[in-house]
Amino acid sequence: MNAPSRTDLLDHLIRTRIAGDVATPRENNLDNYRSLANRDPRYTFGLSFSGEWTFRDVLEQMAKSVGVAADPEHREGQDTIDPDLTIDAIEAMGDRVGQVLARGNPRIVIATGHPTGLLTIHLALARFARSHGATLLTPAERWSYMGNGLGRVRRIRYLDDVAMLDDGAALVHTHDPDPMRAILAEARPDFVIADHGWAGAAGEAGVETVGFADSNDPALFIGQAEGKIAVAVPLDDNVLPRYYGPLTDYLVARIASHL
């Protein structure tokens, strides 16, 4: 494995718009921050919050954790993810995962709600964790429920021990916490690597959890601020999968440094 330097990774994140000037527009970010402040369950990802977390509070935290523009008067157009914050969080995630693997034979659940983008990172982490003694749990396989998409039944499906949802014909995007709740009802992992509601539900249940989140998905960053999520990595979560290669190499190298 040839991991990039921090400088090379930073340049790559900006060039591919994983960070820097990202595709998610400012309007969408602000709408979602308001929705979380209003405790819309579609945006809380299964997390509950002890703080008040007004819209201004959420924006302030997202500026601190993600690097979006802090000015509430900036209401439309370009928004940003600070690539240095992305790399800092990747390093923190790598440290957490490395420490867990170093304990010996941890029980881990890996899951993604973004099979068109982030799946490639999760598959690499699953391979690495398995090769270094982790037991990857696959509970609640084929558990089903009615999701929010066109009235179709959605089921938990594992691909190389990574949990996702399918609708009978395709792997689907989801923010829902219910699938992770079903997993936790059958098994209690030591550690979870995930995103969206998969991560939120695990953190809410008190499982040590690290995850990835976009600038328009504030829940995991608020969860991190309240201590329910160990690490949330800010990034655009749906660029071309191959663009995540250098990021993945950097993350795996950081994990390996603990082993």
From TrEMBL:
<dbReference type="InterPro" id="IPR031423">
    <property type="entry name" value="Phosphatase_SCO2771"/>
</dbReference>
<protein>
    <submittedName>
        <fullName>Phosphatase</fullName>
    </submittedName>
</protein>
<dbReference type="Pfam" id="PF15698">
    <property type="entry name" value="Phosphatase"/>
</dbReference>
